[in-house]
Predict the structure.
Amino acid sequence: EAPYLLPEGVFVEKPRLSRNLDHLGPEILFRQSKISEVLGGSGYNSDRLSTPYIPQLTDEDRLSKRRSIGETISLQVEVESRNSPEKEERAPAEEITYETLKKAIVDSVAVE
């Protein structure tokens, strides 16, 4: 009966309630008294149910909306490179070819 419970745009910076929320039937609304009764009967604290929820965007939410995924990845790489010790550089890995493997096998057999 209810295609969605949350109105469109509820998670934007300045949410506005839609006018059609006034016409919602009781079958899709939560009864706070019943929820509180059930939670209290199960030993849970239901005091926070009376506190209204007000969604707030964090700075991270605002930043993530402004940045593309490419910018985010480049920032992560920049931070990681700053945290790594600059003096410690990795030596290039030794190239392993068919000839080096063959020589290693022949040498190990000769030693035995």
About this structure: The chain has a mean pLDDT of 70. The CA atoms of residues 77 and 83 lie 10 Å apart. Residues 69-83 form the longest helix (15 residues). The chain is about 40% helix and 0% strand.
